Amino acid sequence: NFQEKEQGIQGLTGDAIRLLNSHRWPGNVRELENVIERAVITCQGLYIRADDIILPKHQKPEMVDTDQLLA
Length: 71
Description:
Mean pLDDT: 80
Number of strands: 2
Shape: globular
């Protein structure tokens, strides 16, 4: 059950956050929501890792320097 699994997840690893930040989300929050839900279901530990995330194939990720995003 997704809701039970969701309660066990503690967060995302830095690599997972960088991967999500590298993707251009074309104004579609539902798409991001679906990716996170899928990652929660496939996650084997307490933290969602980059390996748990499957990005939509409509674009290749472009690496973004997340340090600049936080500055």
